[in-house]
Fold:
Amino acid sequence: MVNIRPARPEELDAAIALWVEANGEIGVSATGHHENLQIWANRDDAALLVTEESGSLVGMLLCLQGRTDDGLGDVILALTHLTGLAVLPNLQRVGIGQELVEAAIKEARRTGRNRVTLWTREENDVARRLFDRCGFLPTGRRGADERGAITLHFERAI
Ligand SMILES: CC(C)(COP(=O)(O)OP(=O)(O)OC[C@H]1O[C@@H](n2cnc3c(N)ncnc32)[C@H](O)[C@@H]1OP(=O)(O)O)[C@@H](O)C(=O)NCCC(=O)NCCS
Structure:
């Protein structure tokens, strides 16, 4: 059982740094995405969940208020959108990623949301198995990330 909590505002840079490290080559090259994470995390209606080990952040997940047009349009009150799930490589495969997602679902339920969505890269088998374990189903939508990799859209009813 890991301790998951909302990040303090001054922890945002450290969280983004861990996201870059967790994503390896993709993290370094995906400047568009980590800049977006920084902007989205600063919104009043966003919640950045983190977990720490020995005083350092080791995992993060950003929970966004759902909006139409994939985040560009009007608020969808009943929807939470997840992005930026990351766990430092040396602490992967002990369950932190799943606990972060489960904590986000619990918080979404507590705040009256009835569904949670996310995108992941088609080739990201680890993340796809994790989301499958957490009850997410494919919606059939496909997209592309900032680097042009195919992404798939998933949804979980709560
Ligand atoms: C995807 C990511 C967040 C998963 O984080 P994680 O903390 O390793 O996730 P979990 O530990 O919950 O699950 C990962 C695997 O470890 C296994 N595992 C979990 N606890 C375990 C334990 N105690 N002993 C052995 N294996 C364990 C899980 O069964 C899972 O196995 P699988 O890949 O065969 O399905 C992480 O790999 C990461 O940061 N990747 C880079 C960024 C990324 O791709 N993010 C997702 C974007 S959508």
